[in-house]
Amino acid sequence: MSKESNLDKNWKKDFPIHKQEAAQVSRRDFAKFLTLVSGGLMVGSGLVAAKSYLLPKEEVEGEHFVCDIKDIPVGGTKAFLIEGSTIPYILIHIEDGTFRAYEQKCTHLSCAVYYKPGSGQIVCPCHEGYFDAKTGTVNAGPPPRPLPSLDVLIKEQSIYVKAHENQVG
C-alpha cells in the first residue's frame, strides 16, 4: 500500500494538473482556434467566388425533349436534367393547364425547391422561400431574385424546353 501511495504522490508531483484547470482554455489557444476557423472560412468563400467567376454558368442551347404531356398530370411535376448539363430543372403542369420549367435550385442558398399543388407556389423548404409558379418571381422569404426559367414548347404530344429568346448570359 505504501508503494501505491508513493506512486500516487510522485505522479501528482510530476504532473501537477488539476482537473478544473484542465477544462479551461487559455485566451491564446482560443485566439489560435478562432484564427484557424476564420482563415478556413475565408479560403472556402474565396474558392466558391473564384469558381463562379472562372467557370461560367452552363448555357442551354437548342431544344430538349423532357417528356410526353400524358406523363405529367395536372398539378404534377417532373424533375429533369438537360444532356451535357448538371443543373437540375423542374417541369410543372400548373392547374390552369400551362407548363412552366425552372431551375430546381433556390436563388438564396441553392436548396432544392418543389411545387406545392393547388397553391400556385414553388416552395424552398430550407428557409421558407416562396416563388410564383407562373412567373418564377419571389413571393416571400429570403430569395434575392426569381428562379431562372426555360421556355416550354409543346410539339404534338411532347414537351420540349429551350433557353429564353431574350436571355443573355
Helical stretch tally: 3
Structural class: alpha+beta
Q: What coarse outline follows from CA principal-axis ratios?
A: elongated
| % residues in beta strands | 25-35%
At the fourth level of CATH, the homologous superfamily of the largest domain is Rieske [2Fe-2S] iron-sulphur domain
> Whole-number average pLDDT?
84
Span between termini = 83 Å
What would you note in describing this structure?
This protein is an alpha+beta fold and 169 residues long. The protein has two domains: 2-54, no CATH class; 64-162, Rieske [2Fe-2S] iron-sulphur domain (Rieske Iron-sulfur Protein), CATH 2.102.10.10. It has helices at residues 2-14, 19-22, 27-54, and strands spanning 64-68, 77-81, 88-93, 99-103, 114-116, 121-124, 129-132, 138-140, 149-155, 158-162. It is elongated and about 95 Å long. The N and C termini lie far apart (83 Å).
In short:
The chain is an alpha+beta fold.
Describe this protein with a few key phrases.
about 170 residues, alpha+beta, Rieske Iron-sulfur Protein, 2 domains, six-stranded antiparallel beta sheet, four-stranded antiparallel beta sheet, 3 helices, 10 strands, elongated
